[in-house]
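S.,

Sequence below, as promised.
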Amino acid sequence: YYGLPEPTTWADLGSPVYAAYLPTTLVGTADATTSTSNTRIFQIILQIYGWEEGWNLLVRMGANARIFDQSGNVRDAVINREIAVGTTIDFYGYTAQWLNPEFCRYVFPADGTIVNADPIALLTTSQNRELAQGFIKWVISPEGQRVWLDGNINRMPINEAVFDTPEGQQRADLAEVYQKTKEALTIKFNSTEGASYYSSIRSFHRAVIVLPQIQLEKLWEDMNWALETGEITQEEFDELASRIGNPLEMEFTDPETGETQVFTKAYAQSINQRMATDVEYKQRMTDAWLAAALAHYEELSEELAGLTAG
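The prediction came back faster than expected:
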């Protein structure tokens, strides 16, 4: 639709390719503080690429993006052709493809993702143990799995045999996605690690990407324009791009201790519990990170101006 290549990796979403129409944004993503599914996506990226490179990618994605409050709104923006590509939860993606096959495609990132099942369990306090076990058996049977094939539900079944049922035979589209899910490159996601900095990264994402997005987007647009017009070299662009989202370059003053800090993984983990429970502290940290991000983007803007002036 926009004449751009289809992305195949998370890294593509932070590519200069998707900065081609800035300030018109072609990527859609969501605010981590309002979208748990996008927070999981960001955690996946951090675990694939590592802390520093992962944040740098997330910031460049944010520079390319229109930021929504929920995954569903990202999906709708793609369906409505307001953006070209978006990050959303799996069943939103393949439902969009099912309803709009002519221009929507659900993509498994080639640099990695995670696949897990929704849990079902029997409570130890169950008063009707045999009935409960019977229900669980039915849920995972081909008969029970047919529920997921309903277009109004449209979730991925766990039992492949459901596609041999009459209803399953009508859902070749979902069977294809099921097969691609089995073949997708998956990572061994560390849930314990993800939980250890969950609250911290949500607020940091908001502070360095969502709140200062005007300044971030302008810097990224100027960098790409300077490269396109030959005012800076590819090497100079790459050097700036490697620093734009590096959390170790965004120094801030810890509002509690007054010490200068950077947002390392260890620091994020050390404050995670308090970020989850202390609203006032969370706001002070967000303010400190926002100030650091704005100063960092201004510094890079000045460096860019120096390069283009020379």
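The longest helix spans residues 279-309.

Coffee later?
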